[in-house]
Fold these 4 entries.
Entry 1:
Amino acid sequence: MEKLTRAFYDRDTLEVARDLLGCHLIHRVAGEELVVRITETEAYIGAVDKACHAYGGRRTARTETLYARPGTAYVYLIYGMYHCLNFVTEGEGTAAAVLLRGVEAVEGADRMARNRFGRDLSQLTAYQRKNFLNGPGKVCKAMAITRAHNGLDLTGETLFLCGGGLPAGEIHAGKRIGIDYAEEAVDFPWRFWI
């Protein structure tokens, strides 16, 4: 599979969110490659989306990365303890990104399990296995992604994506999760999964 180029991200955010499904995210850390296949994403578009950190053009130290060039990692902390990875989309200066919500392990699963639970995958309970990589904070902990990766170029050699893609018929769409405060944006069908 080929590494995704900046042109992949420099497109409509909803298209990118769908097209990321089935792609592989690779994080090279401590001499090891952690590889996952993307199974769930959510789109956020600042100009019209009350759930986006940069809604209405809001610019803060936290949101500045959302305005970076497409193909930049936007990593932020929620609840003071969970990191979330987003892929900046559309043109530089436009606040839009895709949140990585869920993945499945491809390579390095034992390391990911140790990152999350302190033990190998084979030692996890059935509940832990079922809920291993099904949330943005869980994914970042397993993949060892932190705020230190905020602003990282996703076309580099440390944290990057490789193409895959799926036929449109395999993709589901629905409301995003955990944004009850976002008024009409709660109903936007901008969550995609396989």
Entry 2:
Amino acid sequence: MIQSGRATLTVSSSETDPSVITDLLGLEPTRVTKAGTRRKSGRVADHHTWSVDTGEVSNTIDDQTGSHALRVLVALIQPALGRLPNLPPDCEPRIWWSAYSDSGQGGFVLPADLAASIGMLGVDVYGTVHLDDPDGPESETPSP
């Protein structure tokens, strides 16, 4: 069952400075990476990345669909409604959605009202479900 999730609106750009994206969208980013910045992996970023992130969000008693983080993100970025199409051509907005399951199953529901809200934003959603490894160290039983 999905226990929690995380959602991020990311705008990647080859030329447009992240401060311009902030001004155009009317949102304060939670993270900005400029082209030329060395990443944790040691690679150097070849583009700017501007993002608004929810952090990890647990399911609620009322919402066990696995989409709570996505719903939180849509509420956070609501002020940008109608502004995303105004981004310069080098800007690529995406929503990244990850859900974390405590079992070998990762099903989740994208409620129709939430899908409609995302559709109004006009941004594609890239989703990933992370499953606990049933064969991982926690599932091993000691040998007699």
Entry 3:
Amino acid sequence: MGYTTIYEEAQASFTEKKSEFIGHIAPVSTADEAVAFINRIKAENRKARHNVYAYVVREGNVSRYSDDGEPQGTGGVPVLDVINKSGLTDVCVVVTRYFGGILLGASGLTRAYSQGCSMAVNAARKMEMCECSRISFSCDYTLYGKVSYALPEYGVIMEKEDFADSVNLVFLVKSELSDKLKKQLTDISCGKLELSEETNLLADFA
């Protein structure tokens, strides 16, 4: 089963009625990693009034959130909602607020924390982690022309193209396309290709 996460940390900020909101997002694989990221952002923003957060991790199917002193339901829930609607997992978002002296009200806070999370999500580079197979084989140069023509339609990720006496190829293909691709390679080589396949892998096909 594939999933969508992010490649690395990102952040974005905006100002609403003199309050600065900074959205921070990070890839995490466990609840402990999420907590460590939250604590680091809090430490880096000690003068901030609030550090609202939410995280979703696949391990243990865990999701948590906190309003961090904002009125109940105005911070953590909106941030978690944005994460869920974006389809991301294995991520943690902290939205830091530097209070500007003007109250925003419950609806204003909800919009601001949602926006802070959305901006952080949009700033991050997405990773489409898909189940895949690694296929490897060698072929002669005549056959390589046919193979290289066929591969692009399957969206493969090429890991190795070694041009020596023969051509040695290693690439990743999504699991649901593997059988179809193997059949086509067998057909165009008249059964001469000796394919090696490693299954049940995960890779970024974004």
Entry 4:
Amino acid sequence: MTTTLDRAPQPAVVLRPARLSLTPKTTLAGQLDGAWWPRSRDLEAELPPLAAALDETWGHITRVSVNPRRWPVVPRTVAVAGHLLHVGWFTEQDPDKLILLSYTVGRWDLLVVPPETEPAAAARLMAAAAIPGSVLTAGVLMANETVIGRGVRDSRSREAAWEDEGGACMSTFGEPFGRSALPLSANGWR
């Protein structure tokens, strides 16, 4: 007697590609070897695509260290393409940096761009972290981006105010000038 079981095909786990920006191979050693922009703060979900992307160029990643301030759960190990990735955490480590270790190739430090970062800001951070020989640390890059991002937001709000005011001139105190406050031109028109 033969028994046939109807099994629905199991969906394959689809790994979305890691969003990475790596420094080109060069003799210039910098503070960072690139940047990684995860999609969430779930290390178990985010580390497999990262390791898969790096295994081809850097060899098997065997260990990762993070600062637990940025990751709500830090698992001890994560299964990655046929091997285990050991995860450690250190509160002394820069919270915006991920350290990757490989037995065969060495160590790499990556800036971790927060998942909630706007795409334009993430692009700036990823480009800055991939500059060969850069002396800027992960913390400095994040602080710089905070200032740049604030400037971009302020610029957008000033532009929106300009449009809302109908293009009225503004005083140095941010108040719109009324037409009567504008000086008379040589022909008497305002």
